Amino acid sequence: MKPRLAIALVAGKAAGSLARRLGKGDGTSLPGLVARRIEPGVLRSLVGQAGVPAVVITGSNGKTTTSRLVTALLKAEGIDARSNSGGANLVQGVTSLAVSNADRHGRLPVGMLVAEVDEGTLAKVVPELAPRAVLVLDLFRDQLDRYGELHAVAAAIESVARSLPQDTAWVVNADDPSVAALAPERTGRRVTFGLDLDHSTDRITRAADSIRCPRCRSDLDYEHVYLSHLGSYRCPSCGLRRPVLDVAVTALLVGGAETSLTVQVGSSELVLRVPQAGVHIAYDVAAALAVMVGLDIPPVHAATALVAVQPAFGRLETAHIGDRRIVLGFVKNPTSYNTTLQALGFAGEPRQLLIAASNTKVDGEDFAWLWDVDFESAAARLEHVTVTGTRAGDLANRLKYAGVDPKSITVISSASRALDAAFATIAPGGRLTILAGYTPTLELRSVMNRRGWVGPLRDA
After folding, report:
1. CA–CA separation, 330 and 317 (whole Å)
2. CA 20 to 30 Å from 364, out of 5, 6, 143, 418?
3. Are 81 and 22 in contact, with CB atoms under 8 Å apart?
4. Which of 287, 65, 69, 302 shows the shortest CA–CA distance to 192?
5. How confident is the model at residue 284 (pLDDT cuts 50, 70, 90)?
6. Which CATH number fits domain 3-306: 3.40.1190.10, 3.40.309.10, 3.30.565.10, 3.40.50.300?
7. What is the average pLDDT across 39-46?
C-alpha cells in the first residue's frame, strides 16, 4: 500500500473502534469519514481498483432489507458476503464497509461486498466500487427538499446506468414504470423482477407517485396494482407496457409475522418463507433473487437462507421486555408509512403507538407529505398515541384529522421520556408499536440499547 492509504486505513479502523468503546456510535460511518479525509481515494483503492466483486443496491425504499437478503443468499451458496446492513448508505458509510473489513495490508476477504447506496450518493459511489451488479428497487417521493422530484432522481440514476460497463448487470423493478424505463438504450445485461399475481393487493391512492407513462406522460392503465404505483401496467396512448419478468412472484400470502411466496426464476420455481410481513417483502425477495441471476449464481439454497433472515434494525424489529413487546418501524415517506401500516394491520396493530418525526438535515425539512399517509386506516384501532420529535405538532394535528381522538394523543418533546410514557401504557402481555423517521429511530433505538432491550447496530 501507499503510505497515505495505509494511514487512512489505520486511522479509520481506530476511529470506529474508539467510537464504539466510548458509546458514541456503532462505527458504521465514522471509519469511512476519517479514512476519506486522509485519502479521498480509499474506497476506489480498496475495492474498484483491486477488483473486489461488489453489488450496489439503491432506490427509495427497501435497500437495507434487500441487502440483508442478498447477503444471506450469497452466504448460502458459499460466498463470504459483507454488507453495510446497519443502514449507513452515504459515501462515508459505504467506505466504512470497505475500511472495516480490510486487513492491515488493505486486502478484503475473498467474497463479495453488498453495498446499499443512497440515491443521491450513487453517482459518486458506483465509479469507486466498479460493481458487478446494480439494483434499482423503486422510486417514490422522498425528501423533496433534498432530492427534488422523481424525474430528477430518475435522471441521476439513469446517468449512472449509461456509464456502466456492458458486463455489469442492470437489475430493475419492472413493476415501477419510472424504474423500468431507465436507460432503455443500454445494451448491457438487464434483469427484471416483479409480481405476477392474478389479483391486486393495493389500489391507486393520492400517495401514488408515478402513474403516468414515462415515455409520453399519458395516464397508465393498470391490470393489477400491487403496492402504491407498482403493478402490471400499459400505456393506452403509446403502447408502452411492463417488461417481461425474469424473476416473478407468482403466489403470495402475507401473515402477521411472515410472508410466504412462490417465485419463478428462469425454469425454476422456488417456494419460500421469510419471517417478515408485507407485500414489500415479496418485492425485496424478488429483487435479491434477480441480483443472483445477474451474478450468474443459482440460488440453490434460497429457501434455507431466507427463512433465517430476521428484520433489519427498525424494520418492524421486535424487542421483548419481560412479558411486553416493542415493535420498532422506520418510516420516512408516504409509501414506507403506508406499507408499514398495511403490514401491521395483518396482525390488528397498532393499538398502543409511539410516533416520532424530526426535521434534521438527513430527515428532510418538508413534512407536507404527512397528509398522504393513510393514518385513517389505523385510526379506529388506536387506543393511545404518544407523539415526539421536532415535528410532533404536525404529527398530532395530522392524527387528529385522521380521526384519532385528541384526548388519546400525548405530545412529549424528549424522545426518552416519550418512550417511558408510551411504555407505561402497555398492559402485561401487550405491545407498543413505534413508527419513527431516521433520526428519531436512531435516538429511540440508542435509548433501548442502553437499557439492554436491543443489541448494537452492526454491519453484516
Report:
1. 9
2. 418
3. no
4. 287
5. very high
6. 3.40.1190.10
7. 97
